[in-house]
Amino acid sequence: MRILSLIKTLILLAVLGLAALLLYGYARNHPQDMPWTALDLSQPVGAFTGRKLTALRGEFGTCRRLLEDAGVAFTALPPRSGGPSCGYDDAVRFAGGGAQRILWRPGDLGVSCPVAAGLALWEWHVVQPAALEHFGSRVAAIDHFGSYSCRRLYGRSEGAFSEHATANAVDIAGFRLEDGTRIGVLRDWERDGPRAAFLRDVRDGACRLFSTVLSPDYNEAHRDHFHFDQAERGAMGWRACR
User: Fold this and answer.
1) Which pTM does this prediction carry?
2) What is the pLDDT of residues 143-173, one digit of tens each?
3) Same-domain check for residues 55 and 163
4) From CA 220, how far away is CA 201, in angstroms rounded?
């Protein structure tokens, strides 16, 4: 009996050792899927990338270094105060050149650094691959409705303030391809064909990178744009992805 028990113990230890070795190998080759590894914008989007992006809130120095290391050209914006619930001290504006090829229209878009990091990954791993798949052309520019706005949710006179009040959100209206094709959320969301499929792909891909993703599927107020933000997540993970 002792010999049998020893054999079982050795087998169990061998299985555990093999499992640990496999986990180590996977973690080494897929650091983006591990919760304990540091965020690296040069890595593919992984299981915990979204949470790591949200965790950059309040870590402006770290966030800027990540953008710089990834080759993202940007300008750090001076702090802005708009009262106890409005303003920002970690906003950046994308500059021309660098690792990003997409232009933002109008070009004065300033967003919180965690949102900027999410947008960079969204361009590289979601938007451009989807554009090539559906149209055979890359996205040259994105039309937006802005980021910073000192207001409450839906412009109400009371209640919680919007993530826009701290530049921690961006509203995206449409896309312009290098071949001249234009895709608009308002015009093309309900259509059939590649334009609607592209819009759904870029919406769904954003859900891996932003805490909140809202589209025309959410409500009438979002019929003409996507809303992305990096709000703090609750215990259940994503705040919304619709």
Assistant:
1) 0.87
2) 999 999 999 998 898 899 999 999 999 999 9
3) yes
4) 20
Task: Report residue 106: phi and psi, to 5°.
Answer: -70, 165
Q: Which amino acid is at 92?
A: V
Same domain, 100 and 176: yes
Find the domain containing 229 and state its range: 44-241
Tokens of 6: 């020893």
The pair of structure tokens assigned to 85 is 């619930």
State yes or no: pLDDT of 112 exceeds 50: yes
Residues 90 and 29 in one domain: no
* 115, 125 Cβ separation under 8 angstroms: no
Co-location of 215 and 174 in the same domain: yes
201 neighbors 130 (Cβ within 8 angstroms): yes
Is the preceding omega at residue 78 within 30 degrees of 0, hence cis?
Answer: no
Co-location of 3 and 61 in the same domain: no
